[in-house]
Amino acid sequence: MSDVPSMTGYELEIALAAIATLATMLTIGIAFMIRPSAATLYWTFAFALAMVATYGVTAGEINDLETLRRASLGALMGAPAFLWSGFRAQWGLRPHGWAGVALAVLSAVTLASVGDDNFTTAYRIAFLAASAFAGLFFIDWVRAPERRNDRLVLPLAIVSLAFVVLAVGSFAAGFFFPPSGGDDFALLRIIASIGMLAYVGCALVAVVGIAAREGGLVRTPTASTDWQLFERTATERLLRAQRTSEAWSVVYLRLDDAEDIRQTAGATALAKLSARFEEEVRSVFPAESDVGSPSTGTAVVLVPRADADVRDHLRAVLERVPDLDVDGSLAIRPTASAGWAPASVLGYDLDALVYTGREAASLASEKGGDRWERVGADVVQRLLSETEPR
């Protein structure tokens, strides 16, 4: 084996270990700790496995422990399967979490026990098996428009397709150009390490970006712009209504058990339910109402109606929420809670109406959900108790 490929391969392993370590730290700190779910758990497993396996490869080379090096190379092949499982859980699909464990164990045992003559061939097969899960990820990604439109996942989808092409090409080359010595494996490993480095980097961008976006650490430009537009429009309409003392109200609606739905069915399923929820709110309340959504699973309505009309609309929308799960895919029956803040009681300041409406919705949720609360003495007492020194 020549010195140049050996040194290059070693440096690539160090780079892969560094990025895998960073990915593990960020995934645990930003994703799993803030938004614990099946998806973030599988992603943590993927990066932690890549980190430990790369350390094992490096330690095996430094200490001349060939069995450890080969077993670690095999274990590394399970990381793409764990990433695939995480994204399937994120998209509300069955994750098949056993696949990562099975591939990591089988590849590690095979590469550690196979003879020198067949090692390169076994490595090509294990690399091809790992790429199959990158291919499955690409297929799952391309099937749904909302997944294809997620720019955070696009780089990973592209590099996953390249991963498959590289693995298939490497496997086919093994038939046309049979292994002739250690240099063949050194070159193959350099190519595989470069591909894995790019793959882990793109996966890190997708995983941390999605976790930060859904954890509320960042807001998408579209969501932020829509909510800001609602705030400007609602503020202007309330200022005009104040001059004539018209009857206006703010209704704050929120899906009950939104976090449980996210963890059991995935963020995509929750996003779909939230979109149906907002559409239902728009269809129930009068056309001249303004509807905005400050976050997933919530809807805020500015209603130019008398109290009796607002009450009827509230009852109607809450009755329709359980029917939003049209395909029966959720393990939890969807319900909603609502807080009703009338301007006749609180004045025409939008921030005050939204804030007290949100507190009333929280109170309704604490009382069991699937109900509404009008801002009154209970909500005021709740606000006072939160501001009292302890």
UniProtKB/TrEMBL annotation:
Transmembrane segments: 12-34, 41-62, 97-115, 121-142, 154-178, 190-212
Domain of life, source organism: Bacteria
Keyword Membrane: yes
Key words of the record: Membrane, Transmembrane, Transmembrane helix
Cross-referenced InterPro entries: Nucleotide_cyclase (IPR029787), Rev_trsase/Diguanyl_cyclase (IPR043128)
Stated name of the protein: GGDEF domain-containing protein
Protein species of origin: Microbacterium allomyrinae
